[in-house]
């Protein structure tokens, strides 16, 4: 059977924004039910967790990809789905590019690096091309990414959610059976205000909150070893206590975490035995126990 590749040159339409063959379209819900969709499992995926921050720029995608890599290093079949249609980060973080192939069932085949399967809008459009779509196109593209990817069997799939608490987040939480959500925030109040909104959203749609991660918690000077809490020290701990949420762990503010991400070799791969690499692994251990991995 000849190899078939997805082509981004297909004519895009509202009902099929990714241009997938018609035979791969998911079943339509009855019209009377479209206002309240039923939650569905992602085919061939055992556990699904969402990583959210509701605030941009707090390192959510870096934490999401390192969690997926940590699961893989534990021997789990792990994948990551980049649900940010407008600003996908996973291709850069995993050093992946190219258009995905189509399976014999006309579903997108994930790309793989470091043992983790990945799918992202970034694989389907040119790196420099903006996605200038209105809501209907975005939501349909998201549904295709959720339901028309052939994961080939996973123990755990990490969903990297975009910032905010809008259409994308509601579509995922109302249509997908999630085993839980991880909330990421820095310790500063301006980030925590949005993180708290994310907590309220997940509770409103009955998604279990697995805990919070405090990113960029402390900076240690490489010259004098003095530690400084640039963004505060206990903001996430305070909110965990206030809202009855488990604290999953701290990730330090360290230059190598940023460098590792930019060169497409995340910390769990490039420095697995470092304190920061082990911090990601400990968080993955805690999350895994909570979802029964």
Describe this structure as you would to a colleague.
- With 293 residues, this protein is of the alpha/beta class.
- 32% of the residues lie in helices and 17% in strands.
- The strands form two sheets. An eight-stranded mixed sheet has the order 3-4-2-5-1-6-7-10, sandwiched between helices. Strands 8-9 form a two-stranded antiparallel sheet.
- The longest helix is centred in the C-terminal third of the chain and has 17 residues, at 275-291.
- It is globular, with a radius of gyration of 19 Å.
- The two termini are 36 Å apart.
- The model has no long low-confidence stretch (mean pLDDT 86).
Number of strands: 10
The major beta sheet can be summarized as: 8 strands, mixed
Tell me, rounded to a whole number, the average pLDDT.
Answer: 86
Distinct helical segment count: 9
Counting helices, strands and paired strands, the structural category is alpha/beta
For the biggest β-sheet, the strand order reads: 3-4-2-5-1-6-7-10
The helix content, as a percent range, equals 25-40%
* Radius of gyration using CA atoms only: 19 Å
Q: How are helices and strands ordered from N to C?
A: EHEHEEHEHEHEEEHEHHH
The coarse overall form would be globular
Cα separation of the termini: 36 Å
pLDDT < 50 stretches: none
Beta-strand proportion: 15-25%
């Amino acid at each position: 059977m000849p190899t078939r590749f997805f082509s981004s040159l297909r004519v895009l339409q509202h009902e099929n924004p990714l241009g997938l063959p018609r035979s791969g379209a998911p079943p339509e819900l009855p019209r009377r039910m479209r206002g309240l969709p039923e939650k569905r499992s992602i085919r061939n995926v055992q556990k699904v967790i969402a990583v959210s921050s509701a605030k941009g720029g707090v390192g959510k995608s870096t934490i999401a990809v390192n969690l997926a890599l940590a699961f893989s290093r534990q021997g789990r079949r792990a994948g990551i789905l980049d649900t940010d249609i407008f600003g996908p980060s996973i291709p850069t973080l995993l050093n992946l590019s190219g258009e995905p192939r189509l399976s014999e069932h006309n579903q997108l085949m994930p790309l793989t690096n470091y043992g983790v399967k990945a799918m992202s809008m970034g694989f389907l459009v040119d790196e420099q091309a903006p996605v200038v779509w209105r809501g209907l196109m975005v939501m349909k593209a998201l549904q295709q990414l959720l339901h028309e990817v052939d994961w080939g069997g996973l123990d755990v799939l990490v969903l990297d959610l975009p910032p905010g608490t809008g259409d994308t987040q509601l579509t995922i939480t109302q249509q997908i059976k999630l085993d839980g959500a991880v909330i990421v925030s820095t310790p500063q109040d301006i980030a925590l205000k949005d993180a708290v909104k994310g907590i309220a959203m997940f509770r409103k749609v009955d998604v279990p909150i697995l805990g919070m991660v405090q990113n960029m918690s402390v900076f240690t000077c490489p010259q004098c070893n003095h530690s400084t809490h640039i963004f505060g020290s206990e903001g996430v701990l305070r909110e965990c206590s206030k809202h009855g949420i488990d604290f999953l762990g701290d990730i330090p503010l360290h230059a190598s975490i940023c460098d590792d991400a930019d060169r497409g070799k995340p910390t769990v791969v490039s420095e697995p035995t470092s304190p920061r690499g082990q911090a990601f692994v400990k968080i993955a251990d805690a999350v895994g126990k909570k979802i029964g991995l």
